[in-house]
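Worked example (supplementary).
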Amino acid sequence: MRLQKSTLFALYAVLELAADPSRQMSTADIAARYGISVHHLAKVMRQLVRAGLIQSVRGVGGGYRFSGNVKRVTLWDIIEQFEPEADQPDDVSLDTATPISLALDSVRGEIDDITRATMQSITLKSLLKFAPAED
Amino acid sequence: MTDTAITLREAEAGDIAAVARLDELHTGLAKPEYWRQMQQPHEGRCFLVAESDGAVAGFIVGEVRTWEFGSPPCGWVFAVNVSPDCREGGVGSALLEAICQRFRRSGVSTVRTMISRDDPLNLAFFRSQGLTAGPYLELEKALDPAEPA
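After joint prediction of all chains, the assembly is encoded as:
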């Protein structure tokens, strides 16, 4: 599965915040930690707030905080916010489906099904549990 | 609910009705005969139940299989199930750890299972226990009953 930049940024941000739900981090903090664009991440953070996965904390030392349930939210819950077509077959817009194109669609469907089941089965807590410890 | 007080022990014939009920609750299919067979002595097999307040709170069954599909000896978990009243209390984790200990004592160093893609509960459980995709792919096809036997 090829993920868009926004999706990867969203996964980094949500997982970083979910690692310690009591912690607040600014967009700049997260962007610096992952070496990614602050401007691009800011747009992603706003979408995550709208999705209810994080909340914005105002005031001095404000930033963002995780607001979901680490035992319930899965990687797929984040991915589907940014990859609206992730659950749809590619629209190659063939005028005519041929036996070969249908057979290829079937193989790609197998891969998509496995990918989706995998992403739906990994909660944030599970991923964080097995993330290697930092030096 | 957290940290349910449980006792782990080998499954007995008297547990099978409760095991079959738990399984039916999750799968929607009643198969008491299968569970009775599973409880019969079989080399390498391990069938454990978790008991809480005198009732079956969960069960796990598996066995060591050797060289099937070309795989070196490996512990297979065939099924694990926890009563809905006892979920998120560590029962499933305790059962899996117990069967893994038995597999280790049998000399194997890998535990493996197979789960339906449509079973997010068990998929998430095994993921939370550190199981990831293994080196084998399961393949199948439907057999056309119209083709010659």
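Two points are worth noting when inspecting this output. DSSP finds four helices and five strands in chain B. The beta strands of chain B are 7-10, 45-52, 55-65, 74-82, 111-113.
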